[in-house]
Amino acid sequence: MDIPTQMKEMAQRAKAAAAILSSCEGAAKKQALLNIADLLEKDQAAIQAANAIDVEAARATDPDGPKIKRLTLSDGVMASMIQGCRDVAAQHDPVGEIETMVKRPNGMLVGRMRVPLGVVAMIYESRPNVTIDASIICLVAGNAVILRGGSEAIHSNQALAGVIAKGLTAAGLPGDAVQVVPTTDREAVNALLTLDEYIDVVIPRGGEGLIRTVCQKATMPVLKHYKGVCHIYVHEDADLERAVDICLNAKTQYPAACNALECLLVHKNAAEAFLPAMAQRLGAAGVRFKGCPRSLPLLGAAAGPAVDEDWGFEFLNLTLAVKVVDTQTEAQAHIARFGSNHTEAILTADYARSLRFLREVDASLVVVNASTRFNDGGQLGLGAEIGISTSKLHAYGPMGVRELTTTKFVLLGQGHVRA
Amino acid sequence: MDIPTQMKEMAQRAKAAAAILSSCEGAAKKQALLNIADLLEKDQAAIQAANAIDVEAARATDPDGPKIKRLTLSDGVMASMIQGCRDVAAQHDPVGEIETMVKRPNGMLVGRMRVPLGVVAMIYESRPNVTIDASIICLVAGNAVILRGGSEAIHSNQALAGVIAKGLTAAGLPGDAVQVVPTTDREAVNALLTLDEYIDVVIPRGGEGLIRTVCQKATMPVLKHYKGVCHIYVHEDADLERAVDICLNAKTQYPAACNALECLLVHKNAAEAFLPAMAQRLGAAGVRFKGCPRSLPLLGAAAGPAVDEDWGFEFLNLTLAVKVVDTQTEAQAHIARFGSNHTEAILTADYARSLRFLREVDASLVVVNASTRFNDGGQLGLGAEIGISTSKLHAYGPMGVRELTTTKFVLLGQGHVRA
User: Fold this and answer.
1) How far is CA B391 from CA A66, A196, B224, B227, B395, in A?
2) Is residue B387 part of a domain?
3) Are A38 and A128 contained in the same domain?
4) Which DSSP string do the residues of A326-364 spell out, in sequence order?
5) Chain A residues with CB inside 8 Å of B221's CB?
6) Average model confidence (pLDDT) for chain A?
7) Taking a C-beta distance cutoff of 8 angstroms, is the pair A77, A129 a contact?
8) Residue B201 and residue B325 in one domain
9) How many domains are contained in chain B?
10) Does B118 contact A366 at a Cβ distance shorter than 8 Å?
């Protein structure tokens, strides 16, 4: 069978499974997740053996790269996948709820029932833990899912897919609800991206190039973010000691995260008091600075001059761009021009300035007096998440179980006809 | 200037206007709509003169077609556009509301603020009234809009765009918030569909071919429906007199609408009592039937045999496909296979059957004991609408002002850092 036909049949099976999942009892979905957790424990050795094949192959080309770390299913990663299944099984299942039932003037009742999206296609990097994390959150929302992980993780992903299928069928649910694309051929992705008759949404993760290609080729909706270029604007009236703590947390707690701080904007009247103290604390944590001409003399030895390309750049490491601004307006204009609609923060003691920032700044999370690192499903109270969307349609911000559902209208009539 | 450059500059101006609109006072948006209403009254003669140029040109190729009716800005259409402006100005403006503010365990507050989508591109048929209807609903939701109407309506659309720009600037809002593409060249549409850096969503209306092309080419999200193939399933226990009334309304009140009935499914035990009465009433209203072998003898003289292509076909006229089914399960399987996720209805006296239909049938509106014709923003209580979405992302069903907005997360901290 050629690859496009194979993908089409896979998508058709997914759609059939989604129809069953969409109206199954919530208890069956939860049981499936608990089964998967148990099987991951029981089959841990076999899964790690399959993973070792992938890791060994990857070592041949890239012995010490970060790829190996992402690829490896260590005992710690296994434990966190297992806990994830149990946590998501305990989450609220919103499917079937009817929201905001209203009575129309003619007496008919109109509501919105929360329903699954249908079939989700995930395209992601060589991180086999995502195979479990993405599957369970799609399942609890009642969706079938087609997984296409990085080609380096193919053995790991197929082992995990086997566990998931066993967990599903033991709970009386269709094993086709989670399917791993069995080939690493790129033609498979191209074929999937045209199957909008069966696939309701595609969620790509990974490099910006991959995500842009998916957006260009997909004929179905795409949920994604390209990158996270997050700013903190420190106004002159901010509590500067706390501001240092917040910047340290935002920049250094996990520098490779999409919600890490990449550019610090400081009001001119705060620069002299704030920047040396900030540079000292963050510098001690290994941060290097790229400063504008006004900030540079205040940043100490770890600083060099910023070039045009540093504004709006996603460093993903311990580099921080720093710019002194004259006004909040200038800070917001910088964010509008160079930000990525991901996470933007203001530190200020002023009520009106905080409200203005909240209202005017366009980002999936707008923060007052806290770290940018809170843009995360768990931190914001959504539970497990499948990624962060910076396109505004459907979901703007972290995507949890609820963001993997939609609502359909339901109408309860008593013989009503339209006048 | 070449067309792609021209479109890019237009989109950049739209994005700049959207930034202003997104945080303007609600009163200014409402004033702009009232200004537009007044100007439409004042400039009615000039608008109708521009429209007459378009109508005359269209008559040359298609003297009596339905195109002429859609294209003509009659006094009645003008009055309805003017009333539309005033109605939408009176609607609730949700922008800036914060929904579901919750306190996290660490004490920080997390909410969702309703915000505009940004820049909307509308691609639509030669119906110049849509130029006003779409603009005002986008504006009240705080969006800028780029309009590309059918080429036959270009003079009408430019006259209307002039009125809108005057109404906006008189309210202190940027005239660029509504722009009409000044060329009928198709290259303009192709260029717009790649400008995802500036355009947040595209809404195509018109034929299925056009909409599919937009989905293939667009790199930004698309809100759309391809077609409306709506079914009514009459269960054996339905009130058959009311069922005839409902089918008559669903089929004949506006046969060319996307929420009109296209296929009637009847339980075998109701067929003999229901179909002759139905065929008589609907036949008298001009309906012709395409029946399955079991229904055909019960449908009278206006019926012919249905062929395979009639199932799932959007007739958009007074033709109705009719099929006898053995069970509700068979009816739902028919709907799953041939429906278009638009509007599906069951007529029954049974509580459990109605709940099962509501839960299991996948359509933007699922109806119990009422006409399919209620799938409409005004009828469902959303106010003015810009179309009906049958893709599940973001909006599933009629799209009113609220569906032209999204929510961003807002976080109110007090020096919070992530642990």
Assistant:
1) 38, 10, 7, 11, 7
2) no
3) yes
4) SSHHHHHHHHHHH--SSEEEEE-S-HHHHHHHHHH--SS
5) 221-222, 391, 393-394
6) 95
7) yes
8) no
9) 2
10) no
Q: Least CA distance to B116: which residue of chain A?
A: A392
Residues A203 and A68 in one domain: yes
* Measured distance CA(B345)–CA(A114) in Å, rounded: 18
Determine whether the interchain pair A371/B108 forms a contact, defined as Cβ–Cβ distance below 8 Å: no
For residue A101, the enclosing domain spans: 3-223+399-412
CA distance B315 to chain A (A): 20
Tokens of B59: 């008559």
- Judge if A193 and A66 occupy the same domain: yes
**Residue percentage of chain B with pLDDT more than 90:** 90
Domain presence at residue B269: yes
Q: Give the pLDDT band (50/70/90) at residue B60.
A: confident
ipTM: 0.94
Same domain assignment for residues A282 and A216: no
The answer to whether the Cβ–Cβ distance between A201 and B392 falls below 8 Å is yes
pLDDT at B318: 97
What digits encode the pLDDT tens for the residues A365-405?
999 999 999 999 999 999 999 999 998 999 999 999 999 99
Q: What is the pLDDT of residue A301?
A: 86
User: How many CB pairs lie under 8 A apart between chains A and B?
Assistant: 227
- Extract the tokens encoding B130: 């849509």
Q: Using CB atoms, which residue from A222, A370, A406 is nearest to B396?
A: A406
For residue B313, is it within any domain? yes
CB–CB contact B221 A391 (8 Å): yes
Say if the Cβ atoms of A418 and B371 lie within 8 Å: yes
Q: Which residue of A has its CA nearest to B20?
A: A360
- What are the φ and ψ backbone dihedral angles of A414, each rounded to 5 degrees? -135, 60
At CA B263, angle to CA B259 and CA B269, rounded to 5? 130
Does position B193 have pLDDT exceeding 80, yes or no? yes
Contact call for B380 and A408, based on CB within 8 A: no
Domain annotation covers residue B157:
yes
* B42 and B123 housed in the same domain: yes
Average pLDDT over residues B388-401: 94
Between A212, A223, A370, which is nearest B411 by CB? A370
C-alpha pair distances (Å), A4 with each of B10, B279, B281: 39, 45, 49
- Closest by Cβ to A245, choosing from B108, B380, B415: B415
Q: Cβ of A201 and B393 within 8 Å? A: yes
Domain of A259, CATH number, reads: 3.40.309.10
